[in-house]
Structure formats: structure tokens, C-alpha cells
Amino acid sequence: MILLDILPKGESVNADRYCKILDRLRHAVRRKRPGLLRSGVVLQHDNTTPHTAKSIKEWLERYKWDIIPHPAHSLDLAPSYFYLFGPQKRHLGGKKFEDEDELIGEVRDWFSKLDKNFFTQGI
């Protein structure tokens, strides 16, 4: 896990916020896994506005990150929906949280305990 971005309650993702997330991801990758960027980065995007905005396309071109398209409303699920969110949902299922901070803490804790090969196996 390189970056976990929790969207504050009541906010939504727009192109500006997504660009900042990509910047944070880029810096996190350089800091935590410096060799990773040498082989390039490939993101999976659907055609939502934050993913298709001109500023995002320019950002991706500047840093030479590639996109695997994933059409909106596609019958095929993104791998993260199947491989990541299923186990996470099972882990969180039935638990009660006093507040949002407790939930976020549990999600962070869950990610920190994943086997190093979890994401590689899912891809």
C-alpha cells in the first residue's frame, strides 16, 4: 500500500482534487518505492470527469503515466472491486464504529496487516 486517501465527508472528487491525489501518489511512490517509477505507472480509469479532464490528461502526459481504460457502467469489474473491496468488506462487516475516525483507523490497520504479496496476487 503506497497511498490511502480518505475523502472528507461531504466532499467529492473533481479534477483539481484528483490531480492533488496523483501528486501525493507520485511523491509517495518516489519516497517509499523509488525503483517503481522506472518501470512506469499504469492507472485504470473510467470516463468520469475527474479522470478525463484536460488537467489530468496533461499531468499524466507530463509524468508519462499510462491509462488502461475502463468504460463507465462496464459489466466487467475493476480488479480492485473484486480483489480489494471484497476482503475489506468481509473484514469490516458486522463491526460497529463510534465515529468516522475509528472507521478510518480500522481501514488503515487492515491495510497495514496485509501480506506484502496481496496486491501482486490480485493483479
From TrEMBL:
UniProt-recorded name of the protein: Histone-lysine N-methyltransferase SETMAR
Coiled-coil ranges from the UniProt annotation: none
GO molecular function, one term: nucleic acid binding
Top-level division of the source organism's lineage: Eukaryota
Cross-referenced Pfam families: Transposase_1
InterPro entries in UniProt: RNaseH_sf, Transposase-MT_Hybrid, Transposase_1
Secretion signal, residue range per the UniProt entry: none
